[in-house]
Amino acid sequence: MGAWALAVIFAIASAAAYAAGAVVQERLAADAVRITVLALLRRGRWWFAVALNGAGGALHVAALAFGPLSLVQPLGVLTLVLALPMGAALARRRVSGRAWRGAGYTVAGLVVLLLLISPATGAEALDGRDATALAIAATATVAVLMAAARLSRPLVVRSLLNAVASGVAFAVASALTQTVALRTSETGPTAMFSPIALVLGVMAVGGLLLSQMAYRNSGLGAPLATVTLSNPIASAVIGMVLLGERFVGGTPGALAALAAALLASWGVVVLAQPEPLDPRAPSDPGTTPKRQPALV
Prior knowledge:
This is DMT family transporter. Keywords: Membrane, Transmembrane, Transmembrane helix. With 296 residues, the chain is an all-alpha fold. The chain has helices at 3-31, 44-66, 69-75, 78-91, 97-115, 128-151, 155-187, 195-214, 221-242, 250-272; strands at residues 117-118, 246-247.
């Protein structure tokens, strides 16, 4: 079996693990709306979700060991495609046509966007100044998004803001992971106890907790699509500002990337819209039937 075939297999397995982790997190959020996020740490299913996300990360690293980033990264958007039927099967519901359309827009836009990004030659580690600047900028960005989410009255807006913060945190953790890995190979295991490694851990855990908060009151589709979208966009910004990455094709490529990002964003908007009321659903007198989330 060729190296690229192994890369595809590992990338798809990574997407499936991430999707299963997202589904478990969303079900936890749906079952424990009145429980604080920190209280979830005492639940076994939360740690199962953590294990699934960890497995997804490990499989992603394995995929990158056999194939280029330009092949592996676009396959990561399969997380959204796989999570929708997984979540529907667990809830014993069907995925609506609207949800599939929203997922399709998001996936198509993301694939085009990722294919238009030209990675820098070889893997690069951030120097101390760039890593510090990234940590400060990321902390400020996540804090602002969390504050905006807390002040937002519509639950969907609050969910999507937390999802964006989660995607940013995961993107920063990925960038710092590469830096710590390269420094470990050069200077030994002491690099794993550096301040950069500490920020990496905080961002990774923070991204997981923020994604858990995003799934509350909003179903699975829109928050997961937002995390899936904001992560590569934040990674692209980090790559272009700090690692010399550029869009393929110069200005036309940048415009095409903008159009792709807008298409993916429209997919999130479609997923965030509530489904029409089901007239067959029974309701008690004097109560207002609830709209279904965009998953079903």
